[in-house]
Amino acid sequence: MSIKNSLKKFGKGFGYAFSGLWRCIRTQRNMRFHIGAAGAVAALAAICSVSRSEALALMLTVGGVLALETVNTAIEYTVDLACKGERSEKAGAAKDCAAGAVLVFCFGAVGVACAVFLTRINEIFAYFADKPAAVIAAAVYAALWFCWVFVCFNGEK
Ligand SMILES: Nc1ncnc2c1ncn2[C@@H]1O[C@H](COP(=O)(O)OP(=O)(O)OP(=O)(O)O)[C@@H](O)[C@H]1O
Predict the structure, then answer these.
(1) 141 among the known binding-site residues?
(2) Taking the model in full, what pTM does it have?
(3) Tens digits of per-residue pLDDT, 75-99?
(4) Domain map of the chain by residue range?
């Protein structure tokens, strides 16, 4: 295969990956929830000016949750394809186990977030206490997050 064709295929691979991610976002409420949570974590990290190692831990856990949710979606599609609409105990168990894996990682992510942010809770309250605009921005973010999770792309499979 020529280098030109190899490069073309390499580029196309990224396209397929982004298309998979976009499908996951459109079809999975949980994925949209995680993305909203990632935005909130990024904002809190900026407010608290976390250390480099804390930022690293947060980025790894956020990335892990999003990646695992994408794998969970792939497993759901594969199971649905294999079942062709039939119900089966094993199919249900496969989906439940995949969802359980995401849940375990989410518990870990919440642990990391607590370890980073709970020690700075006073700093966070102090930041919002004298900035009414920041409180309004947080409320608007929460409302948009809710719509992003429960209204956008509703019913897409
Ligand atoms: N083919 C199947 N056979 C048996 N149980 C299934 C099957 N498909 C799904 N289930 C059960 O239903 C649960 C939810 O399945 P899934 O994540 O596919 O969502 P859904 O039923 O399509 O609904 P939605 O995506 O709207 O939340 C699974 O975790 C599993 O327990």
Answers:
(1) no
(2) 0.93
(3) 999 999 999 989 999 999 999 999 9
(4) 15-48+55-150
